[in-house]
Here is the input.
Amino acid sequence: MNYANSKSLGEYWPAVLSLQKAASYCGMSVQAFKEACPVRPLKYSLKENDMKFLRNWLDDWLASLN
Here is the structure.
């Protein structure tokens, strides 16, 4: 399941998401996302406000929850 397809058609989700956008994409607050999401940020992002997540990895995680 591609989670982005379940969103409204007017929304656009880039392939790489910031922490805040990744949490929003998954329908969670940032704090809940940090506690629940096992997807690790990309290696080049060392600072929390610089963390980036691949949307495809988030889709895989969300699909595994079913």
Observations:
- Residues 19 and 57 are 13 Å apart (CA to CA).
- Residues 15-64 form one domain.
- The longest strand covers residues 16-18.
